[in-house]
Design brief:
Blueprint: H1 5-28, E1 40-49, E2 56-59, E3 63-67, E4 71-76, E5 82-87, E6 96-103, E7 106-112, E8 120-127, E9 132-141, E10 145-152, E11 155-161, H2 167-170, E12 178-182, E13 188-193, H3 196-202, E14 209-212, E15 218-221, E16 227-232, E17 241-247, E18 256-257, E19 264-269, E20 274-282
Antiparallel strand pairs: 1-20, 2-3, 3-4, 4-5, 6-7, 7-8, 8-9, 10-11, 11-12, 12-13, 14-15, 15-16, 16-17, 18-19, 19-20
Signal peptide: 1-23
Keywords: Signal
Amino acid sequence: MKIPPAFLGLSLSLTLLTCYVHGADSATAPASPVISTGQWQHEELKRFPAKEANQGVVADDEYLYVISNVEIGKYRKDTFERVGGWKDAKDGPFIHLNAGLMHEGKLYCAHSNFPGVPMTSSIEIFDPVSMQHIGTHSLGIAPGSLTWIVWHENHWLACFAHYAKNQPKTGRDPSWTELVQYDAEWRRTGGWTFPAGIVEIFGGSSSSGGSITSDGTLFITGHDAKQLFVLKFPTAGSVLKWVDTIPMSAEGQAFSWDPKEPNLFYGIIKKTREVVISRISRKGA
């Protein structure tokens, strides 16, 4: 049967329209999730209860510092005995402590007014020996709620989160989460966003923990996923490159690598108030 030319023209037009629409969808669709490449192995070694295991954990040579919103517990690494701590005074200035790190012999913690708006953030500094609050640096109204900071090659990297629950007030969902680079004086020098696939895994939350290796590899966690994401800085553009996913037994939140045993990983399980100790290493390394 001979197909009329008019019908052929209509068919071609519809085909081109379909290709255009599908092409547009493909251009805006989030990248496919990066599943584990199998290059990493995770082994849980032990876990112990800590009442402060609500936001994260930090390790130094001898102790673990377990962080809650307004409280930090100090535990021995060998016996898990609680040997000290800090707690904000009733009606004190602290609202929402997040991840911490050891820097120049002091405990630095990210802090925000979450879930308040406008979003304000600060860096709070503690003496790990006396467990006293000894310093603060306010960022004022920031690009989001500060969740974690790291020091790398004479500059700071700071993650500012956005949450679905605040979107009606801020107009910004978790895709606005940003990793910002500052110099030593906290002057902004750069910034990156997270891959859309990872933002989907964040759900209505955001990135709760992060660390960086000497070669610039980023490890980050979400709010509650049992996954450690491996990212690289892009060679161009502003979106971090997602290169691997490591399944783990800790459930998101802020984490820490052991300074003496590089493959030893400390995470938490928020709902059971536990610190989880694991070994995470690259196979064959």
